[in-house]
Design goal:
The protein is about 25% helix and about 20% strand. The protein has eight helices and 20 strands. A hairpin with a 7-residue loop joins strand 3 and strand 4. Helix 2 crosses helix 3 and helix 4 packs across helix 6.
Length: about 375
């Protein structure tokens, strides 16, 4: 079987896709994300991994991955979820956005899905995470929105095995699958890539209002939520834009939702844009604190205190981190500040970080099918 480009379709049986309908003219419309691709026989959607085969749409990457890595959960980034734990991380191929600066562009723009050489059922993924002593499984490297059926089944297998699952996503998804995908996982880090629709349209190919809807929906679901904004010099880093974003988060999601400001480095189609200086992240943190946000983190750059968790009440240092390593941990077994007793929002292990939390090393792992 060949796709519209003449390239070979994957040899594994494609998985029936959900969230599509037949239009009166016979085309099939995928309704998983707001892009709403309409497909004739043999065509693929923008994300490339959803394809029309006969009178149905299939997901061509179900059960297939580009590989599995044990990562620190801090790297997702998640600062209020089981600090110091490792998480079995994987992605597939393709993306429903088109970010000009994509930091994982080799995966997100991959059209050669026969390179997905690491097959794994949801149950095998959960078993591999358990065998490796990981806290669970992370859907990352590319957006789990486009492999939502696989991610939801894997999240269910993790829950069955007593493990966590986390989704790292741009959050550009339609309401119904949004509720299913983010309702299935324990935690999510969702990119808020900027705070103007102009930036979203020109630089990412998505729409700001859809992503804001996702954030409010995920917050309402009760799934643990953290937000990441990658600040790009001259594109989305003005005081006014950062202040507007922080004010919206404080008003609509609450002041204790953790926000990560992250530094851009030249990549993909924005190789001429300079790196984000540390001073920009420090400025963003000051603006966020002025807006009342309690937990602000700085990533991809060395800054003083940028990765540490402090009590929103008394300022006590609760989790000290060096890069992705937890070097000190003081949250009580009840998930509170030991100094003032204020509850620290997040998902905490009453036993604290695992013993090896300070000695994390990335390593690839094999997953049995
Ligand atoms: S998930 Fe893929 S096929 Fe479906 S609408 Fe979005 S880009 Fe198109």
């Amino acid at each position: 079987m060949t796709g519209p480009t003449g390239r070979a379709m994957p040899s594994a049986d494609p998985h029936p896709a959900r969230w599509w309908r037949t239009l009166p003219d016979g085309r099939l419309r995928c309704e998983l994300c707001p892009r709403r691709c309409t497909l004739r026989e043999g065509q693929r959607g923008f994300c490339f991994v959803r394809a029309r085969v006969g009178d149905a749409i299939v997901l061509t990457t179900y059960g297939r991955s580009s590989g599995f890595v044990l990562d620190p959960i801090e790297k997702k980034p998640l600062a209020h979820v089981l600090p110091g734990s490792t998480i079995l991380s994987f992605g597939t191929a393709g993306c429903n956005l088109a970010c000009k600066y994509c930091q994982n562009w080799e995966i997100s723009t991959s059209r050669d899905i026969d390179t997905l050489t690491a097959p794994a059922t949801p149950q095998a993924l959960a078993a591999a995470a358990s065998d490796a002593g990981a806290a669970g499984v992370a859907f990352t490297y590319n957006d789990p929105v486009i492999f939502a059926e696989y991610a939801i089944d894997t999240a269910a297998a993790c829950r069955e095995a007593g493990l966590a699952s986390v989704a790292v996503s741009a959050g550009w998804i339609s309401p119904e699958p949004c509720t299913e995908l983010f309702g299935a996982v324990d935690a999510a880090n969702i990119d808020l890539k900027g705070f103007t629709d102009d930036f979203y349209r020109r630089v990412t190919g998505a729409r700001l209002t859809d992503v804001l809807d996702t954030l409010t929906r995920v917050r309402a679901l009760g799934t643990w939520l953290e937000i990441t904004t990658l600040l790009i010099p001259g594109r989305n880093d003005s005081d006014a834009e950062i202040a507007a974003e922080c004010a919206w988060i404080a008003a609509e999601l609450g002041a204790e939702v953790p926000v990560h400001f992250s530094a851009f480095h030249p990549a993909h189609r924005m190789r001429e844009t300079p790196r984000t200086p540390a001073s920009t992240l420090e400025r963003a943190r000051a603006i966020a604190r002025d807006a009342g946000l309690a937990h602000v983190y700085l990533g991809n750059v060395r800054t003083r205190d940028g990765a540490s968790t402090r009590c929103a009440g008394c300022g006590t240092l609760l989790v000290d981190r060096e890069s992705y390593r937890v070097t000190d941990y003081r949250i009580t077994s009840e998930g509170a500040c030991p100094q003032c007793g204020r509850r620290v929002p997040g998902l905490w292990d009453p036993a604290g970080p695992p013993p090896a939390a300070g000695q994390w090393l990335p390593r690839r792992v094999a997953v049995g099918v």
